[in-house]
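Notes on consecutive records. When two proteins share a document, each keeps its own sequence and its own token line. Never mix them. Below: protein one.
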Amino acid sequence: MPETLEQIERNYGRLPLAIVSGSRRDSVTASLEALRLLEKFELLICAEDYEKGKPHPEAFLLAATRLGMSPQSCLVFEDTDMGIQAAIAAGMASVKIPSRWQRVKVDP
């Protein structure tokens, strides 16, 4: 998603970046390595790191704690409604990034 990549590039080195995923660490790591993005993230929170999945806020709260940040200082970029619900429940601001198939093409 170009917008997400733009945010990563813009904020790398300026703000702590983390991935919070419902996927297993090996899958997340492989994807980030393939995209040459792994080194941009200070923290990966993956399925094996928490018990309650989204929309429960556990994973986002764990990320904030490990980064030493308050939830109110975090901004979540999410592609699912359950992820947005989890961010809200964690007290974090959020931005929904729709999947490619959810986007509406607008003619110029």
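Protein two starts on the next line and is unrelated to protein one.
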Amino acid sequence: MAVARKSGFALVISLLALGGVAVLQSCDDGPTGPDLDPVLVAEGKEIFRYDTFGDEQYWTDTLRMHEVIQSAVSPRAALGVGLKVDVDALPQSVRDALAAGQVDLDDPAVTVTLLKLNAVVGAQGTVETIDGRDTLTRFGITCAVCHSTVDNSFAPGIGKRLDGWANTTLNPGAIVALSPAVDAATKAILNGWGPGKYDPRINFDGKNTPLVIPPAYGLRGVDKETFTAEGPVSYWNAYVAVTQMHGQGNFSDPRLGVNIVQSPDLVTPKLAALREYQLSLSAPPAPAGSFDAVAAVRGAALFTGAAGCVSCHAGNTFTDVNSGTLHAAAETGMDPAYAARTTQKAYRTTPLRGLWQHAPYFHDGSAATLEAVVDHYNTVRSLNLTDAQKRDLVEYLKTL
């Protein structure tokens, strides 16, 4: 069943009986902003997918991940920690061999071949012929490793790229923990994060409150994209590229006591194009038949009415952050631990985009389902919703 996507609350919702099929209609076309530059979008796409910003200096020279991959990371192991393979990068002969079961998925040499083909999403490898065999000599990662996945159209973990989608099965902690340069105590912490989570502060304060990897789509029109609204998307891109990916570039924030200067700066000149591409990525519409449209109409009325969700999830961006509003953890019943580690000490209202795609929810993944989200706020906000109303609200959230 095809349902028009609702992207805000300057909208008209009506229920049309079309042969018994309910259809939501909206007069709002979604988040808007300045026109995007197609040249910058194209440039940003290449940066997002393939640019390591020189982070091989960390992943190769410090973590020695090229040695680990070469000796011990088979395709099966790589897929097991959530890495994805871009089927469009595979020659037909390789696809045929995979389909016929003629590829040894337990052989690390095959992983090296996939890197040589530039087929591992978010990973870049330099492969040279040494002593007659392909040898991985340099390794780095790109934005796409966390913020892209594939559609599994060829096999689980192998398919066409879906840029901007949170890689909810990626286990960054387990990947880094493979490095021989990481001590045992740190490995234990990293292995405790689990799929789809990452702590972007641990290397500064040593604390451990991992966050859910967020999607990088649906950002257009949102002033500040981070969980705690510390800055716009280019701020976060620079922070991650320099301090987390360990790329070669500049990042400074006196609020955090961070001032990193590296020459040449391989990050800052690329931020504008990277931002343009990210802003071009729309949230994916909910799959046909994945929700009850009649119930969703009732849920939409609750969202804007009795449940009062729209008081925070406002406008066509579904967030009040554009007005400068932030929320104390106690106000929303959130764990305050991560906010306490940031400059704002509070959380922004998360824009509701593609909710059907990126469970678990909340910054820390503490709500496994949309039902859990509704139950949480029904309790914290004393909404007194009936079970039927909660179900309707969930069906509406599935459409966003």
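For the record: Residues 39-279 form one domain.
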